[in-house]
Amino acid sequence: ALIGLRGSAFISSDAQEVPYCHIAIASSALNHLYQQYLALMSGAWRSWSPLTWGALWLVITLALGQAWCAWACFYGGLDNGFAMLRRKPLVKWVWLPRGLRELPAAILVAMLLLSLVTLQPIFCLWVCPLKLGTGFLDPNTVTRQIQTAIFATVGIMCLVVLPWLTKKRAFCGLICPFGAWQAFFGRLNPYRVRIQPDRCTQCQRCVVVCPTFAIERDSLAQHRVLPYCNRCGECMDVCPTGAIDYALMGQQRLGLPPRLPRALFLLSAWLIGGTISLLFVPD
């Protein structure tokens, strides 16, 4: 109940279970593995249900990889929506300070370890602004106020203000642990974003429009895209020479038509995004 339909943090006095979503799975994955181990060893087969989520995640990862964040994630649509309110950025933010690009990975590792030590979903309880409207928060008044303040601060800055000012997906690109999770496991996906060296003029328009800072000046010079690329296609739309496009692993060796990867990718993205939005989100 993202918007509080099944309980509100501002009304209910009882703590509720943390809503189950892909961000929660990524930031507390070690907890889930430990719980599944206990269930397996005790023979409590009814507790194995999270394994079906793992199977679903694997299917989606093989079909979309990092593109989940741009084409199917209902949370990512929030900062993307605010980023689209302006035609041009009010504040030009193109380069990240050295080391900041790996901030989501650092947050993911920290959340995994803290969650395992405490056996609680720390990111959900203390950081994630997407849980602001739910009623699972700590029933203690002071603790709840602190949680709500943190949620509101992160949400206002990273989901509203920064995207509106800079047209960058600040939460997805700099905070979300699932984005870092998919940046690693998304390598299993056969689709890639390829920059063709013979057509690239180094105009850096792709660097300016990339909403998740996945194309930097140095990586562009090497004609490569960083693992944090969520396959949104913004760079392809602004490239004046058409040097950037979707590609499949082994495409040249198999002799596939140049436009086939784009068609296959968009088809899978629309199918999965439509299925998620029609079935999972309303439920």
Question: How would the blueprint of this fold be written?
Answer:
Elements (H helix, E strand, L loop, with lengths): L21 H6 L1 H14 L7 H14 L4 H4 L4 H8 L19 H16 L3 H5 L14 H26 L3 H5 L2 H9 L5 E5 L9 H5 L7 H5 L12 H5 L5 E5 L2 H4 L5 H21 L3
Antiparallel strand pairs: 1-2
Computed structural class:
mainly alpha
Q: What characterizes the major β-sheet?
A: 2 strands, antiparallel
Please mark out the parts with pLDDT under 50 across 5 or more consecutive residues, or reply none. 1-16
Q: What integer value in Å does the Rg equal?
A: 20 Å
Which bin fits the share of residues in helices?
40-55%
Explain what this protein looks like in three dimensions:
The chain contains 15 helices and 2 strands. It has helices spanning 22-27, 29-42, 50-63, 68-71, 76-83, 103-118, 122-126, 141-166, 170-174, 177-185, 205-209, 217-221, 234-238, 251-254, 260-280; strands at 191-195, 244-248. The longest helix is centred in the middle third of the chain and has 26 residues, at 141-166.
Provide a short characterization of the protein structure.
This protein is mainly alpha-helical and 283 residues long. It has helices at 22-27, 29-42, 50-63, 68-71, 76-83, 103-118, 122-126, 141-166, 170-174, 177-185, 205-209, 217-221, 234-238, 251-254, 260-280; strands at residues 191-195, 244-248.
Task: Give keywords.
283 residues; mainly alpha
